[in-house]
Amino acid sequence: MNALDPREELANRLGLATTPLPHFDSPASVRERLASNDYLSDDAIASVTFLADRLAKPVLVEGPAGTGKTALARAVADAIGARLIRLQCYEGLDESKALYEWNYRKQLLRIQAGRPEGTGTEEWSHLEEDIFAEEFLLTRPLLEAISAVDPVVLLIDEVDRVELETEALLLEILSEYQVSIPELGTVKARQIPMVFLTSNNTRELSEALKRRCLYLYIGYPDVERERDIIVSRVPGITTTLAEQIAQVVRSLRLLDLKKAPSVSETLDWARTLVILGRDEIGAEETAATLHILLKYQSDIDRATKELLGRSKPIA
Question: What is the CA angle 209-210-211, rounded to 5?
Fold first, then answer.
């Protein structure tokens, strides 16, 4: 007996009538479709995204802040025409904010309506069954992604910010694409969502969580890729200026800084220079705009001392 395709196997477990077709034909098609949505990927990003689609597995994306982890999920959603559902993680996040909670005000109104004056009262067992129906349920991002009938990309952003107890809430969804609600039973996914989890490595994630995911590390791009990102995202910039910007940013990241400049800060700097009408970067222009890239005075002082002791344009 031949083994089932992972998507077909998951579709059978979920009881779907048909197995949804994969979204991507190859890693090359991932790169092409992401690029059409202003996200320039590399081979690793394209390959892992392709495999996540074919294997129906979540992707754990780690790396420094500002390297495009969240943007990847957005770009994938746009590329496949799916709705992006985002769960922003934070310390103290609990089930009522991540999965679901009951609409207590609506339940109270239903209880009061079930006891009109002069006609007696409903049996509590019947009333309890009534008020714990789906119409009284407030869906949060995880349950919303599971119960959606339209294509969905679920983004669980900065998962490393939640406590280990809350992390356990994710395991059922990531392994079985279902949610257990004591009062209603098990809610299974009506489609196979693509799931991305991002982490800035502020704490070590559990082995159980990692085991359920494909792994992708997105570091800072090399000079050539960052140059291409700048050209694609900053209207009116020249390739020469974009190349100079990428070189300067790479040099800054090699310094011992409290916070290295992110890709988003690189783009802000590039837009600043375009607005100022700069065609090339000299020491004066760099020194005057370092605060766009660096967010600590000690970093600005270090960069000024180590990189800007020259008056000719920085190439």
Answer: 90
Residue 146: exposure state from Cβ atoms within 10 A (0-12, 13-18, ≥19): buried
- Report whether 83 contacts 141 (CB < 8 A): no
Q: Which CATH architecture has domain 6-91+140-217?
A: 3-Layer(aba) Sandwich (3.40)
Classify strands 152-157 and 83-88 as parallel, antiparallel or unpaired.
Answer: parallel
pLDDT tens column, 164-177: 878 887 887 888 88
Give the pair of three-digit tokens for residue 295.
């967010």
pLDDT tens per residue across span 47-93? 999 999 999 999 999 999 889 999 999 999 999 999 999 999 998 88
* Euclidean distance between CA atoms 261 and 218, whole angstroms: 15
Helices 104-113 and 124-131: crossing angle in degrees, nearest 10, is 140
Widest CA span of the chain, in angstroms? 92
Q: Enter the tokens of residue 154.
A: 């679920």
Q: Are 273 and 236 in contact (CB under 8 A)?
A: no
